[in-house]
Amino acid sequence: MTSGTSAASVLNSAWSSNNIPNENGRALMSVLSIGFGNSAGLISTNIFLAKDAPKYTQALHITAGFGAAGCAIAILILSFQVLDNRRRNRKQGVNWTYRDVPTHELQDGFFSPSFRWMY
Fold first, then answer.
1. What is the C-alpha to C-alpha distance for residues 2 and 12, in angstroms, rounded to an integer?
2. How far apart are the C-alpha atoms of 33 and 23, rounded to whole Å?
3. Is the backbone of residue 112 left (phi > 0), alpha (psi -120 to 50) or beta?
4. CA distance 119 to 19
5. Which domain of life is it from (predicted)?
6. Distance in Å from the first CA to the final CA of the chain
7. Is the predicted pLDDT of residue 41 greater than 90, yes or no?
């Protein structure tokens, strides 16, 4: 169950760095995401109780709940990004992805009409 869990922190940092054009916002998001990711260890140490050994069914249900919530949040964020990119393309009459946007046009960050989400 613990194999590959460190990859999520790295992927989250890379994803947020690519989607936040402002350097201050990028630094803040990195600090918050790493902090929240590391605080997950506090939850896991408190749900696997010795009295539930050896099956730990309650702890596994809680872990599955957090996993499902994480999947649902990821799907909601991805859906928002896809729909927002489509809305921006329709508004400008183009069919751009994040690769098509010159970075010098992103001085206003999210508020720039040329901004596109990377997913």
1. 17
2. 15
3. beta
4. 9
5. Eukaryota
6. 26
7. no
